[in-house]
């Protein structure tokens, strides 16, 4: 998921910077370009970085807000540029005053900090959204940000909001991109974008998120794309750049998986995964055990659902984030939720990714199964068609698009009777439905029985079948007549 940042320019118009974060460590960084998980990932053969963005406005002098630290190294000798010039005045490419950078602590965002200062002479305020990526991802982040040259780090806990207002609507909609991907990275973009706007105001800068979100929130914003400007063409170049600027990064040339983590999932890209023919290494996974090593005894779970939204586990009501966290633990120890797929990015190129979504896989199975009781045939078919478009919009970064919002209203209405419970059996990587119950169930045993009854008489089917099969009979008769000619 892409990150945004804010910057101020000498122009009176807000300016957006779309930078590249691929998040090399297991950080939550949404290192994807606005419109989708564009292949722009570090480690690609060309400069395919995924975009991070920031917005800047020079209508306010914030040079006194925080004392920028000097970068501890200089550019390559062929540049012959002292990095401290970024603090004193114009940078190599112009002058910006203040930038709010969506920061994960990974390779990409760590490199962006000195790059911004060096090229635009600006102060950098780092922003980190806690969307459930784990405590380990946040430890030492402030020190790391300042060591990279930032003057401040702002952290906001968005976990409950993320699950309640973004994950659950997608779950209710049944949104799955290209048959497999449960949109873990895509769903976190808009909640972080929304928070970026608030942080930008707090620190005196205009901030928005991905480009499409910028367009939604402020159509006057301009876009500046550093990855189109800099000489960094891959992950190894980024590592070298970090070394030259004494920027602490958590990766090496030998360990270059690109990961994105939040409470819903953990994605893996890069390294041997670049070749779709390679099987993922066993030690790559972090949220789930190998199904072969999972317990030999199955575990049963009852998921309570109200109007298409999960509310409880085994009768115990939990907050959205707490419920998902508990299911991640349970599903993870049973090897649930591993997906290996080749997907089509928005720009048309294919990319291979491996995802771990233990809790999400369990919830998706439960919600889908309960709908088999509460929705009729036409409703299910139409909802499934809508879900495909819904997933495409979310994947493309169009969360704030009026079409998605309108579709969400439909999803909320169509699932208002999807209330009940589903019992699932978890065993060595599989999720098996054991039972389902709903007070709004359309299933009637007295109708479904093969025994004739007052509501449904088996003999009534004869006439229906003859009429339903009429087109096939007519076609067969025509072919038979042609055969005699």
UniProtKB/TrEMBL annotation:
It is an enzyme of class 6 (ligase). GO terms for molecular function: argininosuccinate synthase activity; ATP binding. One of its GO terms (cellular component) is cytoplasm. Residues 98-248 form the Arginosuccinate synthase-like N-terminal domain. Pathway: Amino-acid biosynthesis; L-arginine biosynthesis; L-arginine from L-ornithine and carbamoyl phosphate: step 2/3. Keywords: Amino-acid biosynthesis, Arginine biosynthesis, ATP-binding, Ligase, Nucleotide-binding. The keyword ATP-binding applies. PROSITE patterns: ARGININOSUCCIN_SYN_1. It comes from the Eukaryota. InterPro entries: Arginosuc_syn_C (IPR048268), Arginosuc_syn_N (IPR048267), Arginosuc_synth (IPR001518), Arginosuc_synth_CS (IPR018223), Arginosuc_synth_type_1_subfam (IPR023434), AS_cat/multimer_dom_body (IPR024074), Rossmann-like_a/b/a_fold (IPR014729). Residues 257-474 form the Arginosuccinate synthase C-terminal domain. Its EC number is 6.3.4.5. Homotetramer. This is argininosuccinate synthase. It comes from Deinandra increscens subsp. villosa.
């Amino acid at each position: 998921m892409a990150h945004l940042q804010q910057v101020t320019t000498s122009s009176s118009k807000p300016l957006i910077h779309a930078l590249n974060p691929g998040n090399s460590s297991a950080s939550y960084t949404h290192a994807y370009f606005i419109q989708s998980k564009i292949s722009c990932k570090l480690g690609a053969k060309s400069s395919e970085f995924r975009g991070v963005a920031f917005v800047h406005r020079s209508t306010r002098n914030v040079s006194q807000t925080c004392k920028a630290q000097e970068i501890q190294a200089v550019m390559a000798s062929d540049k012959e540029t002292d990095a401290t010039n970024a603090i004193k005045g114009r940078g190599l490419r112009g002058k910006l005053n203040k930038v709010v950078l969506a920061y994960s602590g990974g390779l990409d965002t760590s490199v962006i900090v000195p790059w911004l200062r060096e090229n635009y002479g600006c102060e950098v305020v780092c922003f980190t959204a806690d969307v459930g990526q784990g405590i380990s991802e946040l430890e030492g982040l402030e020190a790391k940000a300042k060591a990279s040259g930032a003057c401040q780090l702002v952290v906001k806990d968005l976990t409950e909001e993320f699950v309640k207002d973004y994950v659950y609507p997608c779950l209710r909609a049944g949104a799955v991109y290209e048959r497999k991907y449960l949109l873990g990275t895509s769903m976190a973009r808009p909640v972080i974008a929304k928070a970026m706007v608030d942080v930008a105001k707090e620190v005196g800068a205009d901030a928005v998120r991905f480009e499409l979100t910028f367009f939604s929130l402020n159509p006057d914003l301009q876009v500046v794309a550093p990855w189109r400007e800099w000489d960094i063409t891959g992950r190894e170049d980024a590592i070298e750049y970090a070394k030259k600027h004494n920027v602490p990064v958590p990766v090496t040339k030998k360990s270059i998986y690109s990961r994105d983590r939040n409470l819903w999932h953990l994605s893996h890209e890069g390294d041997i995964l670049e070749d779709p023919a390679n099987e993922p290494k066993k030690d790559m996974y972090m949220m789930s055990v190998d199904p072969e090593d999972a317990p030999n005894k199955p575990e049963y779970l009852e998921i309570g659902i109200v109007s298409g939204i999960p509310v409880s586990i085994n009768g115990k009501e939990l907050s959205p984030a707490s419920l998902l966290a508990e299911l991640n633990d349970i599903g993870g120890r049973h090897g649930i939720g591993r997906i290996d797929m080749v997907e089509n990015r928005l720009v048309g190129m294919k990319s291979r990714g491996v995802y771990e979504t233990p809790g999400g896989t369990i919830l998706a199975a439960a919600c889908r199964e309960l709908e088999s009781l509460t929705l009729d045939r036409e409703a299910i078919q139409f909802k499934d068609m809508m879900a495909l478009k819904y997933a495409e919009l979310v994947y493309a970064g169009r969360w704030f698009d009026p079409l998605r919002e309108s579709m969400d209203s439909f999803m909320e209405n169509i699932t208002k009777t999807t209330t009940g419970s589903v019992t699932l059996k978890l065993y060595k990587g599989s999720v098996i439905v054991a039972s389902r119950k709903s007070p709004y169930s359309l299933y009637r045993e007295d109708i479904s029985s093969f025994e004739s009854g007052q509501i449904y008489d088996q003999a009534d089917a004869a006439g229906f079948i003859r009429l339903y099969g009429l087109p096939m009979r007519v076609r067969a008769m025509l072919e038979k007549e042609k055969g005699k000619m």
